[in-house]
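Continued from yesterday's entry.
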Amino acid sequence: MARASSRSSHRLPDLLAPGLDLVFCGTAPSPASFKARAYYANPGNAFWPTLHAVGLTPERFAPERFRELLGHGLGLTDLNKTEVGSDHELSAHAMDARSLHAKLRRYKPAAIAFTSKHAAALALGVKAPGYGRQKELLEGAVAFVLASPSGRARSFWTLAPWREAAAFVAERRRRRERAA
């Protein structure tokens, strides 16, 4: 059963700003993330080591440092901003793809990367999206579907789509450096 939070002060805040290179979108915070008030805080989650391994961050960040991602052109959000838990524990009515689309129109990131196939399917309106870069843009953003970093999804783990998203960001960073 989903664990709902009725007070917004208990929700993880979006980490968004105009023109980011890449925004990561999960389904909802895990209980560990909710308790820590930090994204991807479960010790078994591969999110933070993967960001560093694929070159998106200069070092491995602890979850509590999530706000520093903005300085690297990266953002964070979740499709479900009112509940806590694994995909199978969440309510269908709390999945807010409409709100995510509005955020993409408002902030205009270059790309969005879903860290959950479930979140990707709901946001993209596709039953079973494949991993990697998607053919269609989502509100003007390039869309990537990544293998879930959750320890519970380890049997589906592949680094390849993460590398593809990181290569997209690296190219944007190179273009900015050449233009400067």
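--- second protein ---
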Amino acid sequence: MDHSRRRLLRHALHLLPVAALAPPASRAQTEATPGARPGRTVLTVQAAGRSAVDFDMAALERLPQRSFRTSTPWYPQPVSFTGPLLRDVLAAAGVRGRTLRAVALNDYKVDLPADDAARFDVIVARLLDGQPMPVRERGPLFIVYPFSTSAELQSEKYYSRSAWQLRRIEVD
């Protein structure tokens, strides 16, 4: 990781304590407000034996943002996703590991190799076609791979690693 990126991530991590103090949002609150209310936790990242790091939407917005347009099995046409890179979210939380378990609002869980975050520009999408995603449209957060960038990613293996209605990332 280059020096400027490290400095930017350190700055973003410095801003996180405000988010860490916010109580978790209830499912009803998240459904009522597509982007979730400021100060409400929308994502918790926790590694074994470490304290959890909570992000509100503003903390995720302060991280460097990436956008891409891709075809997916869930939308009839290609769509644009915007959000921080998964590797930047993990770095901001100060965690490393071999396996990530993505947990959705409904407690659905999927495991993905942490190496995917380094190999691919996987994002924690917070916008779909430039708009916040309500829960009923797979939001407010969605782990998305840039499927259209390679034939390798256009497979059930990687489609199954995407997690919508993301609420928590557990790192082992």
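The helical segments are 3-15, 17-20, 27-32, 57-62, 86-93, 115-119, 156-159. The first strand starts at residue 41 and ends at 47. Will compare against the first tomorrow.
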